[in-house]
Amino acid sequence: MIHVMFDIDGTLIESYDFDTECFVEAVKQVTGYEIDTNWSRYKHVTDSGILNQFFKEKHIENTESALESIKHVFLSEIQTRIAKKPINEILGAAAFIASLKKKENVAISLATGGWYESAILKLESAGIDVSSIPISSANDHYSRIEIMKIAEKRAVKSCGLGFTYFGDGSWDLEACKELGVNFVLVGDKLEHEQSILNFKKQNKVFDYIGL
């Protein structure tokens, strides 16, 4: 069994900048503070991980209530923007997921540092069918590595069997190094020996997976 795991924002859908704008706006509305968007300085680059660190730095109390309020505003912002302008997939992503689904020897999962509810909204807007695919998110844990472990367990009922991970950020690469799994870069934010700009050339992508 070959397990293939995907990040979502910037990997399957063109939503990285859009997502950041909505997140910043939600934090500002709820707390009155501008949040630093240099994500690489945060220990855990996930929605919940970033907010946990932000709350400590700003000495914000009632963190559970603040997080839920930010999440509510964030989801509202996402819905408003999607209604005005649907999200685009990374070219070929929907077709590639569909191709993987047809293969009997492949398990698929999604592991996102974003919240589950926003992930579903954006994937649906982009026309990517993730029905029956296990998803792990910032709802499950604040640590990206733990989110990936949870996704693996949901997909193959075990951990440590190894998988190929498609992601676009430096935090994705670092998590894959720590877990010792195969990383494929999507986009051009980093330099990596295994990289694709999109999923249009399926044979090349399959090669990186070992299919």
Output the strand order for the largest sheet: 3-2-1-4-5-6
Distance between the termini: 11 Å
Gyration radius over CA: 17 Å
Q: What proportion of the residues form beta strands (DSSP E)?
A: 5-15%
Low-confidence stretches: none
CATH class group of the largest domain: Alpha Beta
- What is the chain-wise order of helices and strands? EHHHHEHEHEHEEH
GO molecular function, one term: hydrolase activity
Protein name: Hydrolase
Pfam family, one: HAD_2
Keywords: Hydrolase
3D architecture notes:
This protein has about 210 residues and is of the alpha/beta class. The chain contains eight helices and six strands, in the order βααααβαβαβαββα. It has two domains: about 1-15 and about 85-210, Rossmann fold, CATH 3.40.50.1000; about 15-85. The protein has helices at about 15-30, 45-55, 65-85, 95-100, 115-125, 145-155, 170-180, 200-210, and strands at about 1-5, 105-110, 135, 165, 180-185, 195. It is globular, with a radius of gyration of 17 Å. The chain starts with a strand and ends with a helix. The longest helix has 22 residues, at about 65-85. Keywords: Hydrolase.
